[in-house]
Design a protein that fits this description.
This protein has about 160 residues and is α/β, with parallel strands linked by helices. The chain is built from eight helices and five strands; from the N terminus they run βαβαααβαβααβα. The protein has a single domain, classed as 3-Layer(aba) Sandwich (Rossmann fold). The longest helix has 19 residues.
């Protein structure tokens, strides 16, 4: 069972915060995107474009299952909640939803390889928020403000962990 799982929209800081929390808690981290890239021998963006979203989500679920099997802080891809099986698994874990205003997320993802965001990232982030927010809320033990520095967000997550 994972020590903690982080979910949230692209740009919410899941990977960065997971690394900081892993160091602070003295445990390893597991990033589902890194796990996928290692398994398929490609970047997540290239793999998603090559196989499509449906196939990608099944590989993502396998990566999530692998990651939560370890005593680790787990960073997930933003769309992991699109899978009902993943949501069922996340609901059984200590899962924290990292959330920030859309303009913060768009600023953070600038220049990254995000195939699902297309040419209009601000529009895409708003659409993903409408689509996924209820799922994030359903699986999350806590929702944490992901604005500010990595240290600030990590401290908020640790406080949320203690409160649960």
């Amino acid at each position: 069972m994972a020590r903690l799982v982080l979910v949230g929209l692209p740009g919410s800081g899941k990977s960065t915060v997971a690394l900081a929390l892993g160091r602070a808690l003295g445990v390893t981290t597991c990033d589902t995107d890194d796990t996928i890239a290692e398994r398929v021998g490609s970047t997540v963006g290239d793999y998603l474009r090559a196989v499509g979203e449906a196939t990608f989500r099944s590989v993502e679920l396998a990566a999530l299952l692998d990651c939560v099997g370890h005593d680790a802080v787990v960073a997930t891809g933003g769309g992991v909640v699109e899978s009902e099986s993943a949501r069922d698994l996340l609901a059984r874990e200590l899962t924290v939803w990292l959330d920030a205003p859309d303009e913060v997320l768009v600023g953070r993802i600038a220049g990254g390889d995000r195939p699902l965001l297309g040419a209009e990232p601000a529009y895409a982030i708003a659409a993903l928020r409408r689509k996924r927010s209820a799922w994030y809320e359903a699986v999350a033990t806590a929702r944490v403000d992901a604005t500010g520095s990595v240290e600030d967000v990590s401290a908020r997550v640790r406080r949320a962990m203690i409160a649960t």
